[in-house]
Write a structure and sequence with these properties.
Layout lengths: L1 H57 L3 E4 L9 E7 L2 E7 L5 E5 L10 E3 L4 E4 L4 E4 L5 E3 L8 E6 L5 E5 L1
The structure holds FE2/S2 (inorganic) cluster (FES).
The site of FE2/S2 (inorganic) cluster (FES) has 11 residues, from loops.
Length: about 160
């Protein structure tokens, strides 16, 4: 009789501990999932946002610069066309040309050199024509890509892919 009662108590204790065990496992699983999410979400955001942004910026076909960005005659303005550096040159006669400022050799950013009247790449001494963007000296294998430049009626400088 005493043994039967003891067995019954052990059985009840075993039955009681089963839900506790399941509850404990579920709790541990939930906490683990929260930790994993807390770590994974910022990593996902870090990795995905720049990729999405750069894809959107790379798809840009036209940008407008405000009139106050107009470079003085004989000077140039460096700016970003989407994600790429670009170079807007205003010649002495007021005409403007705009080029992708990424050197066609190994991708350094080129600079306008007004005194020498050319576009220069400091990495390996590449030289481009300041009117056409044509590669004239040094290692660059191709001309700079040219953008179209227009000044709108409201003075905005509109630069678009040619
Ligand atoms: S990267 Fe411009 S000359 Fe080499």
């Amino acid at each position: 009789m005493a043994n039967e009662s003891q067995d019954s108590n052990n059985e009840n204790a075993a039955n009681d501990s089963m839900p506790r065990r399941i509850f404990f496992k579920a709790g541990v699983g939930l906490v683990g999932a929260c930790y994993a999410g807390a770590i994974a979400y910022p990593v996902y955001r870090y990795l995905s946002t720049p990729a999405r942004q750069s894809a959107a910026l790379a798809a840009i076909k036209e940008i407008s610069l405000p009139p106050e960005k107009l470079p003085a005659a004989g000077t140039a303005l460096q700016f970003l066309f989407g994600t790429r550096p670009a170079l807007l040159i205003r010649h002495e006669d007021g005409t403007m040309v705009c080029f992708d400022a990424v050197c066609t050799h190994l991708g350094c950013t080129v600079q306008f050199q007004p005194k020498e009247k050319h576009i220069h790449c400091a990495c390996h001494g590449g030289i481009y024509d300041m009117n056409t963007g044509k590669n004239v000296s040094g290692p660059p294998p191709k001309p700079l890509k040219q953008y179209k430049v227009e000044v709108a009626a409201d003075g905005q400088i509109v630069i678009s892919r040619a």
